[in-house]
Amino acid sequence: MRILLTGSSGWLGRTLAPRLASLGHEVIGLDPTSSGWTQVAGSIADRDLVRRVIRENRIEAIVHGGALHKPDIERNDRMAFLDVNVVGTANLLEEAIASGVDRFVMTSTTSLMISERIRAGVAGGAARAEWISEELCPMPRNIYGVTKLSAEHLCRLFHQMHGLPVIILRTARFFPEADDMAHAIEQSDDNTKANEFLFRRLTVEDAAEAHVVALQRAPVLGFGTFIVSAPTPFSRSDCEALIADAPSVVERYFPDFPRLYARRGWTMFRSIDRVYDAGLAERVLGFRCRTDFRAVLDRLAGETAPT
Prior knowledge:
This protein is of the alpha/beta class. The protein has helices at residues 11-22, 47-56, 78-99, 116-123, 143-162, 189-196, 204-221, 239-253, 257-264, 279-285, 293-302, and strands at 2-6, 26-31, 40-41, 61-64, 103-109, 130-132, 166-171, 223-228, 274-276.
């Protein structure tokens, strides 16, 4: 297929583009920043540019990974988020319909599912961790989440109005940067990221593969919204204990974790406040992340203990 990939110069785009090319697809990258996988430098907020790229390249499928993200809040005003995340998505959808594009995959975020109510509950000493699945009604807490949810609504509307097959992937954390609250975390960045594979992280390679599967499955499914995260070992019945004493819960599932962590001088979070349930993606989309917390521990087990 001839695939338009927005956000081709980003962390996900630089991983997804070569993966798509390895499968025999022709990838046309569109991003404001030039890179080896970006053929067109520009913004999706530019309707004429979007139209020209889709028509001139006879695009058959769109993977829409381009967006302003949470870190961009400090550098951009709210109108910029509306222009890129909402108007930009509408431009892509409108031109997809006009040119007969036959499938559309959008990268969204689990961030839009964390409302101020959830954050306040955690900060105020919630009694149990939040179990977060697609059944939760999102109430985003910032302009990033609001505009991503608006983009999701546009995708649903265009599917309903025009029958465009659309898959939305609400990805958990896969960015390489340190947590934006790293100053309050008494752990190394590697330690923190390892812990997060229990409940809110995946590798960028798994994120890319989820998009590959979504492209394949979109015409069959028609429409779907899926949380994409490493499979959690936890169940809903663990939520109270995860708030009170997360290390004990983790040890129950992974008895070797304290020993392997101790070799590195690592620690587990004292409390886990949320769990992303990626079960629907596995059952319906047919995708499961390859890297999970067990894989992290296996890697630690294979390493030479620090001296």
